[in-house]
Amino acid sequence: MRSTVIEARGLVKSFGAHAALRGVDLDVAGGELFALIGPDGAGKTTFFRLVAGLITPTKGTVRRDPAATFGLVPQRFSLYEDLTVDENLDLRARLYSVPTPEARLRSAELLERVGLSPYGRRLAGALSGGMKQKLALVSALLTRPDLLLLDEPTTGVDPVSRREFWQVLSELHHGGLTILVSTPYMDEAEYATRLAFLDEGRLLAPGTRDEILAGYPRPLLEVLSSDRVAVRARLSTLAAVDDISLFGTRLHVRGAEGSGPGIIDAVRAALAGLVPPDGVRPVDPDLEDAFVLAAEGDELVA
Q1: I need a surface site. Which of 102, 152, 215, 239 has the fewest CB within 10 A?
Q2: φ/ψ (deg, to 5) at 203
Q3: What value does the mean pLDDT take over residues 266-295?
């Protein structure tokens, strides 16, 4: 049985009248890649600062395994932009008393792993957003931590760099590293062994991706139409329809609570003459569908 590396119970953090976290209960076990998904202002950064011991809870507790060392990659780049890549890593090694030979070997290995080997003499401030985050990751890994905390590490990073970054995280996880990462991007959660939604300080639906989607309690339809305004207008008065969301060029139509399989016939009838019958079909929910429903608070998907 894997040991618990992070344990939060009834965790509350308030800043004045604003509650950033509201009664969070969460366990992260050793060897997990756990993803916290949520929009800006959800409380993700506050949770990471509490886990790292940078701030203290207003109520409740958060415990990090005292035997587990950790590395932190904050949302904002926090290394010295007027130092080179190599100088930043050398400074990190000296601050944490990593012997010079070991630090140089470790730095070379990590820079090679993330594709930064050719840029050792470049000023950190001259790196692209994706390269800065890779450097921050290398810096955090230099001390060989047992736990890696990453607060929205790919926000503002281009899609190619974002994919490369997550490939590295996946490799680190499969190598045994425990990782807690936050992200606003639903697709990044596909890499996680477990995940949870965080919305307005509330933790919603912790579990594996399959567990969360298996617990989705509503019928869900996909509507294919170029006239999405007209589709919305017709379905807005249909009692069996609870929500209509745009997914790329398609619409996801969620059934109201208590609606059943018959919703497809009702939707097809409402859209007759506008959308052909085969333009309305049942679909499986994805994580965005689950998050939207969980965030409404009426039904927590778990």
Answers
A1: 239
A2: -90, 125
A3: 92
Q: Which residues contact 143 (CB under 8 A, 6 or more apart)?
A: 69, 71, 92, 96, 98
If you count them, how many residues does the chain have?
302
| DSSP run (H or E) holding 174 | helix 159-174
Distances (CA, A) of 108 to 89, 163, 226: 10, 22, 52
The residue type found at 33 is L
Alpha-carbon distance of 123 to 274, in angstroms, equals: 58
Tell me if the pTM is above 0.90: no
Q: In the numeric block, which tokens belong to residue 242?
A: 């609870």
| Residue 289, CA distances (Å) to 152, 218, 246, 261, 278 in order | 21, 10, 11, 18, 22
Strands 178-183 and 250-255: unpaired
**Token representation of residue 283:** 């679909």
For residue 3, the number of C-alpha atoms closer than 13 Å in the C-beta half-sphere is 9
Q: Which residue has the higher pLDDT, 171 or 301?
A: 171
Strand partners of residue 34: 180, 194
> Cβ neighbours of residue 86 under 8 Å, at least 6 residues apart?
107, 120, 121
Per-residue tokens: 12: 């509350």
| Eight-state DSSP code of residue 55 | S
| Strand bridging mode 250-255 / 280-282 | unpaired
Given pLDDT bands bounded at 50, 70 and 90, which one contains residue 272?
Answer: very high
DSSP structure string for 102-141: HHHHHHHHHHHHHT-GGGTTSBGGGS-HHHHHHHHHHHHH
Q: CA quadruple 127, 143, 162, 24: dihedral positive or negative?
A: negative
